[in-house]
Write a structure and sequence with these properties.
The protein is α/β, with parallel strands linked by helices and 305 residues long. Helices cover 32% and strands 20% of the residues.
């Protein structure tokens, strides 16, 4: 496969310094409104949930309050399910799918579960439409002790301060064409590495935990989502984004070792969703509905245990 051109920031083969990070940050532009597209929609969420501001990010472009939603009818005898969206702010359906679930579908599950939802972990990334935060740090590699990303640190503290055991955790993501057009080339440039072009899977898939794959739950999620949108086939070598396909539409990553969001909660059941919004066969609304279907597929599986 042909090599991409060099990323326009930095010197090939040399890691970025603070100078290149600043140059990258100054090249970013606000493209949409977190306040209009996310915060205002939170006002449509019903009285079954308590809205909690768990922090605020202060960046050059402005202040970004961070919000989570917690079941009002909290019952310590019910299992707690954590739903996170917008860890990569540019992955739109993760945010909008979480909000849609809260507005339309979540109340029906409160008889079975305590629900905890953080719809938009990275609001700067949402506005800029970017994977990183302003310091060119990937929040979804930063769910570690002494996290370098405040987005990750604040949502971890929010969950930990509640002092509840998380039974299941679903983290809502997308894989987009821009991953190859922008974000992976930028990553290679930042780290002083050679960029080798990859492929983007055409369809939905999930990422389980290598150490705790929850295979039957992944199957239930895939079966639920395929009623809404198509599932990504494996590449000819039997992989998706370079990882072996362990069942239709499912790969595994070592979630905790990589500092991924779905690993920090140490839940018994974990998964990361990956929706493909650039498909000619999927609309934005379908992508949002696919995230809801993934959540309900998981919850329906868990309540039947």
């Amino acid at each position: 496969m042909q090599q991409a051109q060099f990323y326009p920031i930095g010197t090939p083969g040399i890691k970025w310094t603070s100078k290149e990070v600043q140059q990258w940050r100054e090249s970013r532009r606000i493209q949409r409104s977190y306040q209009q597209e996310v915060v205002l929609k939170m006002e449509q969420i019903g009285d079954d949930f308590e809205c909690i501001q768990y922090g605020e990010l202060e960046y050059e472009s402005g202040s970004y309050p961070l919000f989570g939603f917690k079941s009002k009818s909290w019952d310590e005898h019910k299992p707690c399910v954590l739903i996170t969206g917008g860890v990569h702010g540019y992955e739109t359906s993760g945010v909008q799918g979480a909000l849609l679930f809260l507005k339309e579908t979540a109340p029906a599950y409160l008889v079975h579960f305590n629900l905890l939802v953080a719809p938009c972990v990275s609001p700067w990334g949402y506005e800029i439409i970017n994977r990183w935060n302003p310091d060119a740090i990937d929040p979804n590699r930063s769910f570690v002790k002494n996290s370098p990303a405040p987005e990750s640190a604040l949502v971890m503290k929010f969950v930990q301060d509640l002092a509840v055991d998380i039974f299941a955790h679903i983290d809502l993501h997308e894989t987009t064409d821009s991953d190859e057009q922008e974000f992976r080339p930028a990553l290679a440039a930042r780290d002083g590495k050679e960029y080798v072009a990859g492929t983007i899977p055409d369809g939905f898939y999930t990422v389980g935990d290598t150490e705790n794959p929850c295979a039957q739950m992944q199957t239930a999620i895939i079966e639920s989502v395929q009623k809404v949108t198509h599932i990504a086939p494996a590449d000819p070598d039997g992989t998706i984004i370079g990882s072996p396909v362990v069942q239709h539409g499912v790969i595994n990553y070592p979630l905790q070792a990589l500092g991924l969001c779905a690993g920090f909660s140490k839940a018994k059941y974990t998964t990361t969703t990956e929706v493909y919004p650039d498909s000619a066969k999927a609309t934005p609304q379908q992508c949002n509905r696919a995230q809801v279907a993934a959540i309900t597929g998981m919850l329906d599986y868990l309540k039947a245990l």
